[in-house]
Amino acid sequence: MPSLENIANFIHNWLYTTFNATVALLLEFTIVAILVIGLFSVLGLVLIFMERKVSAYMQVRLGPNRVGPKGIFQTVADTLKLMVKEGMTPNNADKFLFNLAPFIVMTAAMLILAPLAFAKNFQIWDINIGVLFVTAISSVSVIGILMAGWASNNKYSLLGAMRSGAQIVSYELSAGLSIITIVVLSESLKISTIIESQANGWWIFKGHIPAIIAFVIFIIAVTAETNRAPFDLAEAESELTAGFHTEYSGMKFALFFLAEYVNIFIVCVIGATLFLGGWMPLHFGTNTTFNEMMDYIPSSLWLFGKTFFLIFVIMWFRWTFPRLRIDQLLNLEWKYLLPISMINLLLATAMAILGWHF
Amino acid sequence: MNALIVTAVLGVMMMFSSIVLKRNSAIRMLAIVGLLFTFIANVLDSSGVHFFSINIKGMMHFDQFAYFFISISIFCTFIFFLLSAKEMERIGVNYSEYFALIFFILCGIILVASFTSLLILFLGIEIISIPLYILTGSDKKNLKSNEASLKYFLLGAFSTGIMLMGIALFYGSTGSFSVENSVVIAATTSPMLLIGILLLLFSMSFKVSAAPFHFWAPDVYDGAPTVFTSFMATIVKAAAFIAFIRLFSLAFTPLQDRWQLIVAVIIALTLFVGNITAVFQQSVKRMLAYSSIAQSGFMLMALLAFNTFSVEGILLYIVAYSISTMGIFSVLVKMKDSSLEEFNGFAKHQPVLAVALTVFLLSLAGIPLTAGFLSKFYMLKAVMHSGNFLWLIIFAVLMAAVSVYYYFRIIQVMFFKESDSNTIIVSTSFKWLLSALAIIIIVLGVYPQLLLQFLV
Amino acid sequence: MGVTAILFWILSSLALLSAIMIVVSKNPVHSVLWLILVFFAISGHYLLLNAQFLAIVNIIVYAGAIMVLFLYVLMLIDLKKIVDPQRSLWIKLVGVATGCCLLLVLIAALSKADQTTALTQTIGGNIGLVENLGKILFSEYLVPFEISSILFLSAMVGAVVIGKK
């Protein structure tokens, strides 16, 4: 059965039998890089189209419908427009940092892909602290954002960057704590082990209330971390024009835009991996017929299905909740989410020690 | 170990006390009672009653000296609370938090008095320093306090960095954090170890404000609220000394000949800078800051000779110096400002306080029949016994003579100048307490064994 | 020279270069960004030592949290208004001289230091893995670990005292 795992193994073996080890390794690097970039561009197109369609649906309108059938080429056209636009740099900006910032944000997003498992045994780098790696690198992207805001030499940009910095640094805490809840339950930081621990049931089912609380907090926190509505203060149009990327145009703007959507995808993959079993199919106890039927669905489809469900939920938020004020936002994190997630972690630890989970 | 845990718990309790206790006097009572309890816990600990049994993996060792010093610091803090805890109300609204921070500092003091691992030393020094940065800047509306806090924080962080570098080099050359002779002997030839010792020496000199690492001290002592100056110039400083001496006497004696000359030069510089600069000060607070630098020169002499005289001397010195300085500061807190003129004609308005202050000043200057004299004598004798550094002893005696000038200046204005009719209001109990402290100073000056008999 | 050695030299020179740039840069924001680069280079070194946990924690704590706060503060300051204080030539010279003396002493001592005993295992060493680190931290170093909580608590109380109106 051709699965992603078999294809990857086949290419790996073919490369290592055809070339010597160093060349094969370099070729593998190249293939991975091309795949990642390819995934990024496809994701950009798909997610932006999805966002438009979802918001159109929520607001009872049609959304893009002119370019191509049902408007599916609208995003392609937009991308072409952005590519041929002039990328301007303001006069008094710190030119080097201004131009560097989008790439840092983008690179950070790419690095996070490394430990993610997209299908059964299909993973770039199964590092033994995968989850921490993700947390660490996602905290780096805030540097790029701050850099962009400061280097633009524009007060809207700076304010946007500041807000987004405060937001990301604060919400990282509760996101991290809810991740740790699952780490405690599955007793590993390694992504592949975490997924395998869910073979007999996803953590959201096995982990009782602590896992559910952690899941909810995780979704709230990552919505804030990706600067999505209702936490999109960093680019609150009515107050700050466009936040930290006010001064950006053309391809540099497109990079920020792309990174934003890729980040949504990434956090949803992580959410799906930790709470919804990653590529693990849905299994119910000993009901073997059902379980085997589920196994026939390819593992990559499982992961992408779960991920896009979460993405849909996050897009749903945007049209459901009004935007918070900055003080409400910080109050929510420091006064509510953080204490709750700490107590929740304590509960989960007690549960793991006493063996109350399945 | 008892006292360590009790102080930590008390710190947390004080932190939350303002939720339950609405009145400041209740918070103060809680702190004082808690301190008494800590004292009892520590005394019980030293006589074999341990509340907790914790395997500390040889990272701390509570010997009789450590217990004794911890008792002394708790006792001095107790006196500090009695003398000046009320004055803390005037600084800001976070009354209970100040007590919490002081309890945390005590926790650090216990750590540095008992460490046998550099890790604990580092933690102890930091637990002492960080609350002090805060207390220095606690007078938030006063620009001088802010400046002092920032200065202290930056320089303190820098010296902690140097200390960490020293610890890293120590670890790199010996492969252990353990502060033992045997560890050092195994790596005597390693130049890395020598540099580590040098960096540790510098950073510890900074913490005890020895010249040429003293530049922070006058500004910080001057800028900090006077109440906290009296705490940090006495008890905290004494703890830094104990850490310094403990570190060098436990670990680095095999390399004594390499670092003792540096210490001697540091002592000479400290004595010189402290005493000579103190002569020119117009503000009593600043004068006391320089005098504390000068006194640390004497206390550092314990590093030059590790014998019974130095061990007894340093403890006696700490008690004499802490009580005297705290006594003077407790009067200074109540004054309008800290200029010398404030003391004009003090003896006419407050004869009891003036006499007590005179005793404290005499003790600091090292006049016979006071504890200050005996402690200076012990230190000099200890160095004498080690056989080296005769020049240092002569120089120290000279500098002590200089110090008499600026201490006597206060006595002179108190008794022989006309007053400008501004008096301070003190309670009777305060007078009693200060007189009792003066009596302690004199009694210890005549019969030091009263204190030192506990050190067996 | 294996891959590890090449990486080591690249990372070391990157770390040193960035460290020099921290001091040389006129703009404090640039200094902070160089400092972040230093942390990344050091994390790379940890990875070479097979200490992945330390590498990642180094990035989370320093590059991700502390440096972001640094940037935060620096960006709020109007740097154009602050002119570098003019120091006299003498002080600069003395600074350079003392710095060089310290450097000389350190180099002289460290070049003689005994290297054979202290060579670290680069491949196969697994002290830095999170499992071993956790075990050591919660058995051998439990007491210092617990004590450090007092340190953080006091720092937090302090922050509240300073920050509260």
Shape of chain B: globular
Distance between the termini of chain B: 20 Å
Count of discrete domains of chain B: 2
Q: Summarize the amount of helix of chain B as a percent range.
A: over 70%
Total tally of structural domains of chain A? 2
**Parts with pLDDT < 50 across at least 5 consecutive residues of chain A:** none
- Radius of gyration of chain B, in Å, reads 21 Å
Rg on CA atoms of chain A, Å: 21 Å
Helix and strand composition category of chain B: mainly alpha
Beta-strand residue percentage of chain B? under 5%
Oligomeric state as shown: heterotrimer
For the largest beta-sheet of chain A, the strand count, sense and barrel status come to: 2 strands, antiparallel
Along the chain, the helix and strand elements of chain A come as HHHHEEHHHHHHHHHH
Q: Can you count the helices of chain B?
A: 19
- What is the first-to-last residue Cα distance of chain A? 32 Å
Q: Beta-sheet strand percentage of chain A? A: under 5%
Low-confidence stretches of chain B: none
Structural class of chain A, by secondary structure, is: mainly alpha
Largest sheet of chain B: none
Helicity range of chain A: over 70%
